[in-house]
Input
Amino acid sequence: MNRRGFLKAAGLGAASLVVPNCTAAPRRRSATSRTHQKPNIVFILIDDMGWPDVACYGSKFHETPNVDRLASQGMKFSDAYAACPVCSPTRASIMAGQYPARIGITDFIPGHWRPYEKLIVPENRLELPLESVTIGEALKEQGYATCYIGKWHLGDKGYSPDKQGFDKFVLGVKNQNDKQVSGFTDEAIKFIEEKKQEPFFLYLSHHSVHIKLEAPEELVNKYKKKPKPPAGVNNPVYAAMVEHLDTHTGRILKKLDDLDLAERTIVIFFSDNGGLREAYGGYGGPRQIVSTNAPLRDEKGTLYEGGIREPLIVRWPGVVKSGTECNIPVTSVDFYPTFLEIVGAKGSPNQPLDGESILPLLRQTGTLDRDAIYWHYPHYHHSRPAGAIREGDYKLIEFYEDGRLELYDLANDIGEEKNFATEMPQKAAQLQQKLARWRRSVKAKMPTVNPDYDPARADEWKPRPRR
Output
């Protein structure tokens, strides 16, 4: 047995002997003890979907009847976060249950580089480590049939989903986005039909609504003709992409109904980072406004709310009450421990989990134990290298170039317009110190001063040389 196989076998073997730890008081029974049957799990991950992109989260232009119906049948989270404002780190956090800084994937893979900026950013790991016990492997150990469909973005050859616990996987072609939605859905439906007699875990990861912008012509024409609301940016092609994605989400939900699986299937709908405001002319298309994350500030690639706050809907008949909403902050590292508790398992002792099971929120029996959520994005993208912490309603962003602090009261200022760092210096300092302690605890890599800094060339992008 190779080293990776030994580590994973040892970790999972030990885990299967341990009674799951319920973090919220009073102690709760395992989710499976009531039914004596493990529920199916369908995890639908959207690429670049902003918090207000679906109608049930506030869009006045996009039509998303299937996602809206899913929300009416389950729980909608108002304060759900991606662990990073770009895709690969968030995807790694879901797979491994750890913050991206701990894993070493802190930018999209492969990432990019500004060689003449003020700071030299840390090297970005180019794959999810094979030693990581993924959620696919953990559920497979518990008797689940596992399937991964769509965008992976966690490593190329040798690091594909079949090396990380998935019995079946179907990957798409980069930048074929909307054209692949139907094909991915076909494969997902096929898997559901094949595995309907056993517990299954389906991870459906769409390329859409990431640019490039493309959608069926009839839908684009529909939104070109549709009156636009007085406020907000409304791109007809992007709106058509959102509805097209909603239609194929509806196909999955209908198949679960047709096969009488809906009552014993958990469906999760989530996005990997905030929405993109403007396409900068890449992927063969013109430079154009895509959408807006208003009332949230900014966009993908930033640690403002528009870059990290996501739509999250969970439907679980018999456990999650229909039409409920939760405003307690949760994050993408929470999915892993939640799934483990659902199936009555515990994670590998060799792999610390940074998240917390959200079952007490889903059941409305309690709250969470943690007091803060953290981010570490030491890269140049649509903003400057920075870290952030949310504790209660307060959120602090620390910019690494100059140590500048921004402090916001999200309960009263969801748009992050009023910076309280100067007016509340003690609170800002307390959160800054807490953020620094967390970075040390996960061994976060920090940027360093660049001796080649050249203000005249600071905006240049180049592929980063690898050691």
Observations:
- Residues 236-258 form the longest helix (23 residues).
- The two ends are 30 Å apart (CA to CA).
